[in-house]
From TrEMBL:
Assigned keywords, A-Z: FAD, Flavoprotein, Oxidoreductase
SUPFAM superfamilies: FAD/NAD(P)-binding domain (SSF51905)
Protein name: FAD-binding domain-containing protein
Domain (FAD-binding) ranges: 1-61
GO molecular function annotation: FAD binding; oxidoreductase activity, acting on paired donors, with incorporation or reduction of molecular oxygen, NAD(P)H as one donor, and incorporation of one atom of oxygen
């Protein structure tokens, strides 16, 4: 798809990367429109061009320039080329940047170009950024036969997920109390939309074996892959830290501990991230779903 849709130099082999990201961006939007989920079908489909054209155009220009530089026989150009290559091999930071840039690992979606992105509170993951990886989370088990406890990082929890994911991060220190009422309100509010709900708590506040009271019987199958716990909140790779929530925790447990809600698209780009202190904050944050989806109620 990438080589067919984008006519550019093969420098860096980036056609396949473009094609994969194009397909991932477009597939979920087409699916939502065809299934009747999209509240504004035309706007959702138009966002494909708005979000992907600039990246494809930039790649075409970059690969074209790289090919011209690589084939040029001029003395000045050859000197610059050889110096740049030597620096890339010798200096680890340059080598890593060049590799990740070629692999398109720095791609973001410009919130000014896309009309379907929300907003984020200061210090949280910005809309348009790819979902960061995290340390493993413990998957909660329900029922009499618990079996092996799975440990998955945040991206792994969303493998094969075809829905918009809404993640409630209700972690807090062992000396603080999680807001269970807010967690229940989140679960119930998101019930009206065709989204994947995920709840992450601190491991010392989790009780296994039984479903939370707010989970309906018909939701128990989905709930099997919806509840997780985190053990190390202050690790640099913890979800609490990488989401930006940790910076909002009160010092010395002197105030209320906030929660956070992440809105993650099926292509794993963050659409919105919000700090939640009360049900009013939650309701305001969840209204973002009305921009994308039809409310089933």
């Amino acid at each position: 798809m990438g080589d067919a849709a984008h006519c550019h130099s093969p420098a860096g082999g980036q056609g396949m990367n473009l094609g994969l990201q194009d397909a991932d961006n477009l597939a979920w939007k087409l699916s939502d429109v065809l299934n009747g989920y999209a509240v504004h079908p035309d706007e959702l489909l138009d966002s494909y061009h708005a979000e992907r054209y600039s990246h494809a155009n930039a790649t075409i220009k970059t690969t074209g320039s790289a090919t011209q530089t690589g084939l040029s026989e001029g003395y000045i150009v050859k000197t610059i080329r050889e110096t740049a290559l030597q620096a890339a091999f010798i200096i680890p930071q340059i080598r890593e940047y060049a590799f990740k840039n070629t692999m398109q690992l720095y791609v973001t979606i410009d919130a000014n170009e896309s009309k379907i992105l929300g907003t984020s509170d200061k210090g949280l993951i910005k809309p348009g950024y790819f979902l960061p990886d995290t340390e493993p989370l413990r998957q909660r088990k329900f029922g009499k036969r618990l079996g092996i406890i799975s440990r998955l990082n945040l991206r792994e929890t969303l493998i094969q997920n075809e829905k918009f994911a809404v993640i409630f991060i209700g972690t807090c220190y062992s000396g603080a109390s999680p807001n269970k009422d807010l967690m229940a309100a989140f679960w119930k509010y998101a019930r009206s939309y065709p989204v994947k709900r995920i709840v992450v708590e601190s491991s010392w506040h989790v009780h296994f074996n039984h479903y939370p009271d707010f989970v309906l019987q018909q939701e128990e199958h989905d709930a099997q892959s919806s509840f997780y716990s985190e053990e190390r909140l202050d690790s640099t790779l913890s979800l609490t830290s990488r989401s930006g929530l940790l910076s909002y925790f009160p010092k010395y447990l002197s105030g209320p501990t906030p929660s956070a809600v992440l809105f993650v698209r099926p292509d794993l780009y963050v659409a919105q991230s919000k700090i939640i202190y009360n049900e009013g904050d939650l309701k305001t944050a969840m209204e973002y779903l009305n921009v994308i989806y039809v409310n089933k109620e």
